Amino acid sequence: MAHKKSFLSGQRIYPDPIRGGMTVDRLIEETFLAYNGGRLQKACRLFCEKMLQEDVTIGLSLSGALTPAGVGRSCLIPLIKSGFVDWIVSTGANLYHDTHYGLGMSLHRGTHDVDDTLLRREGVIRIYDILFDYNVLLDTDNYLRAIMAEKPFNKEMSTAELHYLLGRYLAAREKEMGVEDTCVLTVAYRAGVPCYVSSPGDSSIGMNVAELAMRGTGPRIYVSRDVNETAGIVYAARQGDGKSGVVMLGGGSPKNFVLQTEPQIQEILGLTDRGHDYFIQITDARADTGGLSGATPSEAVSWGKVDPDRLTDSVVVYTDSTIAVPLLVAYAMSRVKPRPLKRLYDRRDELVEKLRKDFLAEHERRQRERVTGPHR
Fold this sequence. Notes:
alpha/beta; Deoxyhypusine Synthase; single chain; 11 strands
């Protein structure tokens, strides 16, 4: 009976009835009290009360077809413009489909219950219940190949630089058309938020890069630069009193790429660190199948990805990102003032150089120890 009082110390579940005109943040605070509703409330509070402090650097990973569903424009653009996201790792597909919006193309609500053989004959593409003209793909491909064949792209680069340049060209197109903020890439370009793709060959952007390579031109993606830039971002974030937080929408390769920054720092480069401080994941994947998409924060601790002393500052919400993310963003926009932009894209060389210098100093120290033995 000694612990009974502590077990029963949580908020009493006795919500007032929902009323018309409730704001989203009040709805979450007052009625999301248990199960995954309770997990989402905890994620919202963690994001707003701790992660959005100015000394926290926030990485966001994107998997699943979120931009075709409008999540890019409705949710990610406000997060970027408010300074609530500092760097991004995405599937290539999300940034490719984001480009449709930048080019003024149309995607439409449809139904999943449709004859796909008929769609193929009619030249209509389906992503579950999203439908669009096959020419959207062809015209986007033509645009990407045309601009990526230009001189600024014709060199070795990280995926962050590739997507920065794409954003710059799309932003110039916006200016010509008299519009603004049509897609994530243009907003990230203006905000200096680097956008990485963990598997750059696995998307239509990568396929178009490959076509240009057949002609001996276009960008040459330097994946090691991506690994070192993202590790440099996290390493710098945790210097002094700084902290690192990650928000993962879905799992897959982008989730791993955001989290592997800490094993890269600790395991590979041999530098002292303790893992990310804050961890929010929205996923529908189970942990017991062994896939990374369902791996829990406590499992990430064993890899050095999450600081073991900060496990209470981690939340997994088991639901669809298209449900949870608009609620999370609405809550944050209601509760927190915009933060100053960190503009990490502009600091990439500086951050990698700091990581390199510390790595080489540590490497040299270990080499000396092998020869002379540890200093006492």
